[in-house]
């Protein structure tokens, strides 16, 4: 039994059409919210690569899929119920570790990130998602509560007014700024540059890499760098490269402009001395398909300010480095927890008092799981990782890289 008294006839804005924002909007509508909008900076749902696949955990991601009434649709998507293969190699292409695809039962079925996004998009009411809405500013009228007191300003000049603002806009969140103490910066750069691309027909274009992926994923480690590939349900490979770089260097090198030629030359220098099969992969990964580069940011602070009209979910509140799929699952669990509390029939709080309480209790606490996953990946790309150590860490974090933020 649920109650819609706190959400019915309230204008609720969700910033970001990632796993957290879309799952939140979907469940809010199912529980009786009548005016929910998701604002997304992408021009449309097909604008960019959504990354590889991720496993959906029983105790987090699967819970909100069930709560949203989407379990059948989820199972009809192109999901893998067996355990995907994993391979770890070194820079000389020596295979150190491989788990074949042999598990028949798996409590964490895998789904492509794009398919997961479509699952929630297709379940939303028409016109719930407002595409091409890049949030650039927020103003809050502290003299009024509940009466459209939050003003949203977008890059195209449009303005909207809402009662409640929920930030699901990822590691580079604009909403987060409203809740940061004055002495805190927007983000903590983890020192890692991530470059991502996608390769079609990998059995023809990079057959050796494709054989190592073997319907799953592969990592190549060395020199404090990481190169990886993961198969999507389409058969395409999502390919990613990560290396430790100073933030100023990245900005001055113009790598974030996503220029294929510029990134190709950069990767040639970074992976100089690696086996030729990896150099060939760089060529394929930077040919024709748009390529993206971004800096990875992590947790920002442990204690936040509160606002009765604003809260955060997912990476906006607790960014996890995007190599395990854990971030998406925790983000969706945030959404489930928030909606469950909002629609609890025993909740006698006002909406604004509840938003403050929820944020303080649920978001304002350090998360040991997040620290574990961030630390594990940073060890993998340390300057002198030993191969056995890398294997153990890989097993610890679940062995399934993901390459898109939530």
Automatic annotation (TrEMBL):
InterPro entries linked? FAD-bd (IPR002938), FAD/NAD-bd_sf (IPR036188)
> Which Pfam family would be a valid example here?
FAD_binding_3
Which intervals hold domain FAD-binding?
299-343
Highest rank taxon of the organism: Eukaryota
Keyword Transmembrane annotated: no
Query: What does the UniProt keyword field contain?
Result: FAD, Flavoprotein, Monooxygenase, Oxidoreductase
GO MF annotations, alphabetized: FAD binding; monooxygenase activity
Name of the protein: FAD-binding domain-containing protein
């Amino acid at each position: 039994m649920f109650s819609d008294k706190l959400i019915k006839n309230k204008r609720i804005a969700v910033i970001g059409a990632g796993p957290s924002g879309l799952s939140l909007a979907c469940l809010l509508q199912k529980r009786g919210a009548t005016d929910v909008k998701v604002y997304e900076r992408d021009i449309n749902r097909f604008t960019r690569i959504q990354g590889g696949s991720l496993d959906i955990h029983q105790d987090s991601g699967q819970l909100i899929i069930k709560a949203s009434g989407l379990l059948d649709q989820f199972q009809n998507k192109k999901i893998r119920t067996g355990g995907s293969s994993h391979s770890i190699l070194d820079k000389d292409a020596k295979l150190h570790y491989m788990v074949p695809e042999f598990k028949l039962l798996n409590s964490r079925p895998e789904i492509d990130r794009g398919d997961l996004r479509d699952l929630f998009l297709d379940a939303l009411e028409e016109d719930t998602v407002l595409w091409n809405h890049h949030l650039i500013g927020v103003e809050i009228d502290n003299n009024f509560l509940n009466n459209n007191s939050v003003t949203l300003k977008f890059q195209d000049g449009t303005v909207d007014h809402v009662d409640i603002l929920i930030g699901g806009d990822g590691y580079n969140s604009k909403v987060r700024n409203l809740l940061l103490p004055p002495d805190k910066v927007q983000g903590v750069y983890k020192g890692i540059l991530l470059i991502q691309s996608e390769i079609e027909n990998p059995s023809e274009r990079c057959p050796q890499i494709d054989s190592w992926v073997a319907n799953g994923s592969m990592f190549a480690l060395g020199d404090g760098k990481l190169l990886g590939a993961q198969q999507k349900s389409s058969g395409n490979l999502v390919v990613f490269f990560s290396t430790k770089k100073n933030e100023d260097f990245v900005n001055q090198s113009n790598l974030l402009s996503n220029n294929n030629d510029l990134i190709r030359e950069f990767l040639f220098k970074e992976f100089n001395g690696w086996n030729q099969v990896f150099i060939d992969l760089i060529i394929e990964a930077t040919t024709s398909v748009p390529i993206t580069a971004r800096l990875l940011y992590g947790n920002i602070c442990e204690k936040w300010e509160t606002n009765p009209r604003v809260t955060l979910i997912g990476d906006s509140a607790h960014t996890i480095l995007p190599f395990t799929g854990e971030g998406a699952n925790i983000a969706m669990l945030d959404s489930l927890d928030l909606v469950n509390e909002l629609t609890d029939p025993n909740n006698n709080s006002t909406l604004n008092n509840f938003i403050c309480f929820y944020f303080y209790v649920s978001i304002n606490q350090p998360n040991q799981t997040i620290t574990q996953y961030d630390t594990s990946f940073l060890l993998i790309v340390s300057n002198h990782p030993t191969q056995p150590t890398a294997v153990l860490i890989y097993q610890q974090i679940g062995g399934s890289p993901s390459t898109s933020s939530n």
